[in-house]
Amino acid sequence: MIDIGQTAPDFTLPQDGGAEVTLSALRPAPVVLYFYPKDDTPGCTKEAIAFSGMLPEFEAAGARVFGISKDSLAKHDKFRCKHALSVPLLSDEASDVCERFGTWVAKSMYGKNYMGIERSTFLIDREGRVARIWRKVKVPGHAEEVLEAVRAL
């Protein structure tokens, strides 16, 4: 499990639109990684719209923002188009990055147990260390709280 102050695990993941993103290559910009369960579900859509709407403010603060889920690039592209999202989405189909960040967890719904992504956000500072962690995120007001934390770095 990752903790505040630790160096964030480096990774390279494919991004919607065909690019690849390597976390360490983004330095010295602060980076926001928000992990979400599934494209085009109510909570995930609201979260993506919130981060997209505030993306200019994150960029003005010097930060890069990325959403990460296990959905394919094709699903990400469809999700972005349907909701006019501007935040880049990364595909972790093998769940390797989710596991390294501790967001791939056992869940339970209606008595059924399964593995899934816990809605979590990580703020990584200019040196690549984890500055803040939000687990079991509630969507309303979350993007605003993350932006405040970015500005406080």
UniProtKB/TrEMBL annotation:
Pfam families for this protein: AhpC-TSA (PF00578)
GO CC list: cytoplasm
UniProt catalytic activity: a hydroperoxide + [thioredoxin]-dithiol = an alcohol + [thioredoxin]-disulfide + H2O
GO molecular function: thioredoxin peroxidase activity
Active site per the UniProt annotation: C44
Enzyme class: oxidoreductase
InterPro entries from the UniProt entry: AhpC/TSA, Peroxiredoxin_AhpC-typ, Peroxiredoxin_BCP/PrxQ, Thioredoxin-like_sf, Thioredoxin_domain
EC number, as in UniProt: 1.11.1.24
Superkingdom in the source lineage: Bacteria
One Gene Ontology term from the biological process aspect of the record: cell redox homeostasis
CDD domains: PRX_BCP
Domain Thioredoxin: start-end pairs: 2-153
Sequence similarity: Belongs to the peroxiredoxin family. BCP/PrxQ subfamily.
Function according to Swiss-Prot or TrEMBL: Thiol-specific peroxidase that catalyzes the reduction of hydrogen peroxide and organic hydroperoxides to water and alcohols, respectively. Plays a role in cell protection against oxidative stress by detoxifying peroxides and as sensor of hydrogen peroxide-mediated signaling events.
Subunit structure comment from the entry: Monomer.
Name by which UniProt lists this protein: thioredoxin-dependent peroxiredoxin
Species of the source: Rhodovulum bhavnagarense
